[in-house]
Design brief:
This protein has 16 helices and 3 strands. It is mostly helical and 449 residues long.
């Protein structure tokens, strides 16, 4: 990657993480705080925690498409201002309905797809995967940092202080966009990073992609529902106040990361992706079942929480890789857009369903419901097709003359290691899915010209 590309990737990763950090920070402390709000019930607390996922899930793809016309930076600034306004409303709210309104506005600032599109604008095709990986890593780090930082900040400034911090982080993100992120010479749609309207139908009909969409939906539904009751369980079983629970999350996360690394190595390097993936889903189910008896057992609680986060980290890293391996060559951006929307809709479902179950069946009902979702996911995952170990390569076709898509596609298919090809003449790009172990990159580049 060139220096400008590193600058673009790192600065946009910072914008992404500044926004997500605040969103994740309230997870471990929100349920205890919300019980003191006027009108709060277990159901409305769940609604308030998960509602941002609804507006985010519905607006994610439209925001990205609108940025093709309005511009990337203006849409990111609009989204971050909307997010800041929602955060301020939530910070000042004394009723649960006020927090719900603020959370809806937070989700309405759905800039994730726009940020990825801007990354694509500012990087060359051959370096784009690395740039996207840098953004993806920051998302995982933001989540882990937030679980520890959330209780610490709440202990100093309360949960309203976290919402005010979100305002500050959003404004900091705007400053980074305006003064640090390079401005692209031109913006256009990138099939590997953005949703293409004409490909939505085919992506939504792809059973293997739908399995993965359900997976990220289920994972974040279980995560959101669990955070409605796990902080209370830590308090009742370990006698640890919600603002001191970072003392539990920190070692748990360190152990979970240590367990995640060898699992990912086995999945990718030894080509055991399906086995590792299905096994991690099984661990999610086991953790929820173990939580059913954790109220009276410190050991069960700590083991269950550790197992959950270890499996969560494995799945959070594996699912995007599986999307890339499974999506058609020219539909990666569309598949990723649907996948991202499914994630946020899962957050909404987990908050609403988890809150309702908590109200009628208490904490164990939530864990039982999460285990049931996990069992359905386990069955779906166990019957999925074994993924190919393929990566994406994008080759630019120089020149200005006409391109015979069919003939050029046949030439690429004859190259060693090429599994799938899509040549798009009007973009002058060839999208290839290849086996990196056998791919003849020099031959493919020669064909591209």
């Amino acid at each position: 990657m060139t220096r400008p590309e590193y600058r673009a990737a790192l600065s946009l990763a910072a914008v992404f993480s500044l926004r997500l950090l605040g969103l994740f920070m309230i997870y471990p402390v929100f349920a205890a705080y919300a019980r003191g709000l006027v009108g709060a019930t277990p159901y409305t607390i769940g609604l308030a925690l998960g509602i941002y996922g609804l507006s985010q899930g519905l607006l994610q793809i439209p925001f990205g498409m609108l940025s093709d016309r309005v511009g990337r930076k203006p849409m990111i600034v609009i989204g971050l201002l909307t997010f800041a306004a929602g955060s301020a409303i939530a910070a000042r709210a004394t009723t649960i309905d006020g927090v719900v309104l603020g959370r809806v506005l937070q989700g309405a600032g759905a800039v994730g797809a726009v940020i990825l599109a801007l990354v694509a604008d500012l990087t060359h095709e051959e370096n784009r995967t690395k740039a996207m990986a840098m953004v993806g890593i920051t998302i995982g780090l933001s989540f882990m940092l937030a679980l520890v930082a959330g209780p610490l900040v709440a202990g100093i400034a309360g949960v309203p202080g976290i919402f005010w911090l979100m305002v500050a982080l959003a404004l900091a993100g705007i400053a980074v966009v305006l003064f640090v992120v390079p401005t692209p010479e031109e913006s256009h749609r990138h099939r590997d990073a953005e949703a293409v309207p004409g490909m939505l139908r085919s992506v939504l009909r792809d059973r293997e992609l739908l399995r993965l969409d359900f997976g990220i939906f289920a994972l974040h539904a279980i995560l959101t529902a669990s955070f409605l009751v796990i902080p209370g369980l830590l308090h009742s079983t370990l006698r640890v106040d919600s603002r001191d629970q970072w003392l539990v999350y920190l070692p748990v996360l360190l152990v979970s990361v240590a367990a995640m690394i060898p699992a990912i190595v086995v999945a990718e390097k030894r080509r055991r992706m399906k086995e590792v993936f299905v096994g991690a889903v099984g661990v999610i189910v086991a953790s929820q079942l173990l939580l059913l008896r954790a109220e009276h057992s410190v050991a069960s609680l700590l083991v269950a929480v550790t197992l959950f986060f270890a499996a969560f980290n494995v799945l959070e890293a594996s699912l995007p890789s599986l999307i890339t391996k499974t999506a058609p060559a020219a539909a990666k951006g569309t598949a990723t857009g649907v996948y991202s929307s499914s994630q946020f809709l899962g957050i909404f479902f987990g908050g609403v369903a988890g809150g309702w179950i908590h109200q009628v069946a208490h904490a164990n009902g939530v864990f039982a419901g999460s285990a049931a979702i996990g069992v359905v996911w386990l069955l779906i995952a166990a019957t999925m097709r074994r993924p190919g170990h393929l990566t994406m390569r994008i080759l630019r076709i120089p020149g200005t003359g006409s391109i015979d898509e069919r003939a050029l596609g046949e030439r690429f298919r004859a190259v060693a290691g090429v599994a799938e090809v899509a040549v798009v003449a009007d973009e002058r790009l060839a999208y290839l899915k290849v086996d990196p172990r056998t791919f003849d990159a020099q031959r493919a580049q020669a064909i591209a010209g």
